[in-house]
Write a structure and sequence with these properties.
Length: about 80
Amino acid sequence: MAIRDIQGRPYARLGALVPGAVVIVDGDFTCMAAWSKRIVCTDGTDLFIPCKSGHHTLDGQLDFEDDDILIGIYHEKDFTR
């Protein structure tokens, strides 16, 4: 289970995010600039962040072993570079 990246930064937890929260994405997204800040939004069902393709749903980043950890996404309040 990956709860932190290789630099020791904790990944965001889906259960801790609400619409309006600010997250930071790492450099592995082709639809967003590396280390850019994004505001979490909702369509009433799912949480997502805006991207070049329209939107990126957060549940697509869930870790296979821990269904609350979002790989490659960091909650701004916990992020240090």
